[in-house]
Write a structure and sequence with these properties.
By secondary structure, the protein is of the alpha/beta class. The chain has helices at about 45-55, 70-80, 310-315, 335-350, 355-370, 380-390, 400-420, 460-475, 485-515; strands spanning about 60-65, 70, 90-95, 100, 105, 110-115, 115-120, 125, 130, 135, 140, 145, 150-160, 165-170, 170-180, 185-190, 190-195, 200, 205-210, 210-215, 245, 255-260, 275-280, 285, 290-295, 295-300, 305, 430-435, 440-445.
Length: about 525
């Protein structure tokens, strides 16, 4: 039997093994586990002994055929021996096929695994199918090699499905209804589609060489006869949401996510995140709701999509407000310097997907991280970003810019009423001289000198004049109103500041409408 990762002096299996075919070059030979009370594995038993062993199996029995080489005929005989007459399906309690080799096709369709099912390090050289299987414990396929087309599912697993370290060399369809799916360091060498229900998914360090889709399935999977796959384990579960918790160190250039909950997903370290495709409704975390108090200051966060790592970082800061989630397992020491490029890449992914509203939230997140980054952003840039944030929420919060504009206009009106408008409107005087013998008369028109205001300055008439001057300043236009020296400087300042605030408000509205 050809074993993976063989060496001139291969390590011995930890179980009692068959040793069939051992040679000087291969002193171990077949490393299939011995059948109980026999000196050979199931594949190398004498026909009579094999028949007697199979005849003694009953549905629901424990089996261990680690390291055993299976042909499709031998596997079929084993599953037939475990077939429940009442349901017509193979039924086994704990099943171990660690390091087993399946030379032909491996069909586990409809099989029920009542306990643990382990295929760690197994090799499937033919097609694989677990259509309609039910796993009532964990299903472990760690470091399994799938050399041809594989169809795992639709299957239901009460516990955890682990494909960590597995290698898929051909196209594969995975249809799982499971509590958890682990694909850490799994390699996909061909196209793949992963359709899931209820699962919490970990894809850290996985490798995709071709397009791979992870999608949530909203309705139960359907068997070939048109009947839905039973899901008794998940009865009463409010929804079949799929939660992705990690894409760390993944090259996302070929990855498509559809209708997946990303509120707890770790993205830092993901490569080509800007090429990630998000389809359907992919949800992210949100900032804390309601108004919070930090000592004497009220704090209210602008609602937007956020990353789990930002929650983890903010919750670890001194005087962090309540509502930031610290339960981002595995987030590590990630801060603004690492999160700014993540937000930038996701913004581009949303823009490329024509999802402008989503892109706006990630632009806001990028700017927030740059504003808080004390390693990659210098003080001057942080000051500019802080001002940009205060005035207009980075050009995305029109209400904030309009609020500042209204405050600036109110201050301008009050200052003009108090100091900028003269006591009275100056009167024009015309003087001239009539020549003794007639002829052209020349007049000189002048105004009275402006007098600073005294007495009651807050009158309705003065308010109307001040408001007119202020409104003209907003659109960078002179009002033509006579002003005192102080009023001239007030108007100049107003004409410099208020058009900028109006422009920020218009920009924010445009960005929100566009996005």
């Amino acid at each position: 039997m050809a074993r993976p990762n063989s060496t001139p002096f291969p390590s011995r299996p930890y179980w009692p093994f068959c040793g069939h075919g051992a040679t000087q070059e291969d002193p171990i030979g077949c490393d299939g586990i011995l059948v109980f009370d026999h000196t050979a594995c199931l594949a190398h038993l004498a026909d009579a002994d094999r028949d007697a062993y199979l005849a003694g199996l009953t549905p629901g029995a424990d089996i261990d055929h680690s390291g055993t080489p299976f042909t499709d005929r031998l596997l079929g005989a084993l599953l037939d021996a475990l077939r429940d007459p009442a349901t017509g399906r193979p039924c086994v309690r704990d099943a171990r096929f660690d390091a087993a080799t399946f030379q032909g096709d491996a069909w586990f369709d409809g099989a029920t695994f009542e306990g643990m099912a382990e295929f760690m390090g197994a090799i499937f050289r033919g097609d694989v199918s677990f259509w309609g299987a039910t796993f009532q414990g964990d299903a472990r396929f760690e470091q399994v090699g799938f050399e041809r087309v594989a169809s795992l599912g639709p299957l239901v697993c009460t516990g955890r499905v682990s494909l960590s370290g597995a290698v898929f060399q051909g196209p594969v369809d995975l249809w799982f209804a499971a509590r958890r799916l682990e694909c850490r360091r799994t390699r996909w060498s061909s196209t793949a589609e992963v359709r899931l229900r209820y699962a919490t998914v970990d894809f850290a360090h996985a490798v995709f060489e071709y397009p791979l889709t992870i999608a949530a399935e909203p309705v139960p999977f359907v068997l070939p006869d048109g009947q839905p796959v039973p899901e008794p384990t998940f009865a009463g579960t409010p929804d079949a949401a799929v939660r992705l918790i990690s894409l760390r160190e993944v090259d996302a250039a070929h990855l498509v996510l559809a209708d997946v909950d990303l509120s707890e997903c770790l993205f830092a370290g993901t490569v080509h995140l800007d090429q990630l495709r998000l389809e359907g409704t992919c949800s992210f975390n949100a900032v804390p709701s309601r108004t919070h108090w930090r000592r004497w200051r009220p704090i209210r966060f602008t609602q937007r999509r956020t990353l789990a790592e930002e929650h983890h970082w903010r919750a670890s800061q001194p005087e962090a407000v309540r509502g930031w989630n610290t339960a981002a397992f595995g987030a590590g020491r990630v801060g603004p310097a690492q999160l700014a490029p993540v937000y930038r890449a996701l913004r581009k992914a949303f823009e490329d997907g024509k999802n402008e509203p989503g892109a706006a939230d990630f632009y806001y997140g990028e700017m927030e991280m740059r504003r808080h980054d004390r390693t990659g952003t210098n003080r001057a840039e942080r000051s500019l970003l802080h001002g940009y944030w205060m005035l207009s929420g980075y050009g995305l919060r029109a209400s904030r810019a309009l609020g500042w504009l209204a405050a600036a206009m109110l201050i301008t009106v009050l200052l003009l009423m108090a100091f900028g408008l003269p006591q009275n409107d100056p009167k024009q005087e015309a003087t001239g001289t009539v020549p003794p013998r007639g002829g052209k008369v020349t007049f000189e028109i002048d105004k009275d000198d402006l007098r600073n205001p005294t007495g009651n300055r807050l009158t309705g008439k003065r308010f109307e004049k001040a408001l007119n001057a202020t409104l003209n300043s907003v659109v960078f236009r002179s009002s033509g109103q006579d002003l005192t020296t102080a009023g001239t400087y007030i108007e100049m300042t107003s004409r410099a500041i208020e058009p900028v605030l109006l422009g920020l408000a218009v920009l924010a509205v445009r960005n929100r409408v566009k996005r």
